[in-house]
Structure formats: C-alpha cells, structure tokens
Amino acid sequence: MSKEITEQVEIDINLLNRVAKMETEALFLLYERHSTLLYSIILRIVKEKRTAEIVLQNVFLSIWNLSEAFDTRLKNPAAWLARVARNRAIANIRFEKKPRQPSSEKYKETHISNVSDHPDRLTMLSSKQEEILIALSMLSAEQKDLIEHSYFRGRTVAELAETFHLPVETVKIKIKSTMDILRQKLKHLL
C-alpha cells in the first residue's frame, strides 16, 4: 500500500474513533471526505436524487450509531463506509418495493459498462476511482453484468440465476471468481 493511501486510511480510522466518542466535528470531516463517493454509490442503486440524499443522511446517522462496530483490523474504512451505503440503499429499495429498472436519468459515471466508452470521464475521478473503473472495464460483459446486477441493483443470487438463465451455483461461482479477479487487480488499494 502506498504511503498516501496508508495516510488516508489512518485519517479515516482516527475519524471513526472520534465519531465513536460522539465528536460531531469528526462526523462532519468524515462526511466531507466520503459523501461524494457514497452518494454516487447510493444514487446508482436508488436512481432518484432526492431518495439518494435521504439515504445518504441515513448512512451518516448509521455511521454515527455504528462507528464503534468498525473493526480497525480490517484496515479499510472507505470500504466499510461504502458497504454501509450500499446496504442502506438496497434496504431502501426493498423496503419501498420499487422496481429495480433503470430510470430515464441514468447515473453513468459509475456505470461499469460505460467507462471504456467515455475515457474523458476518467479525468474527473480520483486515482483510486480511476483504478477501480479500469479494473471493472477489463471484465467480460457477463462478469460486468453480474457485478452490476448484484452490487448496484441488489439482486439476490436466485434473482440473478433467473435473469441470466443460469443455475444458482454457477452464479455463485461466477460472482466469486469475478470478485477474486477484482481483488487481485486492486489488492494494492486494499
């Protein structure tokens, strides 16, 4: 892990420890550092700006209440924050029973299949985001679709099996192997 990434992780761990002590300034700083990325994850899942804003508020309320639950041995606060955001967004979809079809207003900056079609978008992203999107763009169409549907649309393995006309075990294996590929390509960020 590079020195810059290590420093960023240490800052985030320190902020989470301060949030656990109910320091509102630390929560504000955490918000300033991560709200844009978390909002983009949430918006990609819920498809509506207003809903994404509400879910983002709920995410930071959860972080306020759950900050003690972060295991510092994981050494990746940003990934933990992203999981909290993703899980809240999916819970929102399931709770409201909204259809998971793409809306007319697509949020394309995080859409896996559009990265290689628009290289100029990469210049707007942080280097970490750029590396993640490049790794995603190297996946096959099937791998991208499975990750897209499972991660951003919150589909279950059974739903994926039905959608892609594959056995459940095959879907599990394909998702696991795709995640292993991404983990290998991005291990320097973990």
Task: Tell me about this structure.
This protein has 190 residues and is mainly α. It has helices at residues 3-20, 24-46, 49-66, 77-96, 127-137, 141-152, 157-164, 168-185. Helix 2 (24-46) packs across helix 4 (77-96). The N and C termini lie close together (8 Å).
Features:
single chain; 190 residues; mainly alpha; 8 helices; globular
Brief characterization of the structure:
By secondary structure, the protein is mostly helical.
Into which percent range does the helicity of residues fall?
A: 55-70%
Beta content comes to: under 5%
Mean pLDDT across every amino acid position: 78
Tertiary shape: globular
Q: Over all CA atoms, what is the radius of gyration?
A: 17 Å
**SS-based structural class?**
mainly alpha
DSSP helical segment count: 8
CA-CA gap between termini: 8 Å
* Total count of strands: 0
The profile of the biggest β sheet is: none
Contiguous low-pLDDT stretches (5 residues minimum) are 98-124
Order of helices and strands: HHHHHHHH
